[in-house]
Amino acid sequence: xxxxxxxxxxxxIAGSTQGIGFASAQxxxxxxxxxxxxxxxxxxxxxxxxxLDAGQGQRHSYLVADFSQPRQVSxxxxxxxxxxxxxxxxxxxxxxxxxxxxxxxxxxxxxxxxQHLICNHILARLVIPGMKAAGFGRIVxxxxxxxxxxLKGLGVSNTIRxxxxxxxxxxxxxxxxxxxxxxxxxxxxxxxxRLEAIINNKVSKTGAxxxxxxxxxxxxxxxKRFGLPEEIAAMIAFLASPAAGYVNGxxxxxxxxxxxxx
Length: 262
Known about the structure:
Blueprint: E1 10-14, H1 19-30, E2 34-39, H2 42-50, E3 61-64, H3 70-81, E4 88-91, H4 106-134, E5 137-142, H5 155-175, E6 180-187, H6 193-206, H7 210-219, H8 229-240, E7 251-254
Parallel strand pairs: 1-2, 1-4, 2-3, 4-5, 5-6, 6-7
C-alpha cells in the first residue's frame, strides 16, 4: 500500500521562504507533517509559515539562521532539537554565483563549501540521533543536475554540488541500517530567482537578449519548458514519505529530460 502520510512527523526545511524550499514545505505540510522552516529573514519566515496547511492539526514554526555562518546554524538548531526530534531534513540553499571556474577566487570555493556541505553536515549530525531513536529518518538534499554532467558557466557550483553528492552517498550507506534514508534531488532549470539570476548573467556576459537566452536554454530541455518549484517539491515530499523507504543513496534529476545521462 502506498503510504504518503507524514502525520506526527516533524520536518526541518532549509531555505524555505521561497522557491523550491517553500514549495517543499507546502508539499510536506500537505502530507500532515509539522514543518519547521529555517532561513535568515524572519519576516519572510513568518509569512511563509502562515501559508502552510494546518488542516490536520499540524503545528508549524520557524528558526532564524544565516547559512553563511555555520556556527549560528549549529547553535540555533542544537537548541531546537534538544526538545523537538526531527524526522525529515531538507537541505536546501541557494547556489554559488555563476562564472567560469578559472576566474573563481579560492574564497568562493571556501564560502560555498561552508554554506552547502558544512551546513548540511551540521544539520544532519544534529537530527540523526532523533531519527535513530524514532527508527525513521529522511534526509533530502536539493542540489543540481551538475552532479551528473557539469553545467557551463557554473564552475564553483559544479565543484561544490559534486562534493555534496558524494557526502550524501556515504551518509546513506552508513545510516540505512537505522531506517534513515539519504537522497539527492537534482532540479533542472526551474522558475525561481536562481534561474532568473543565471539568465540575467548570460545576458550581461553575451549581449544576447533575454528572449534569446531563454530560447537557447529551452532548446536543451526535451519538455520545452522550465520546471515549476511545485514539481521539484513533489519528488522531495515523496522521498520524505514512508513510501520511499527503500529509495536510498540516489541522485534523482527532475529536469524535463535535460540531463544527457542515464
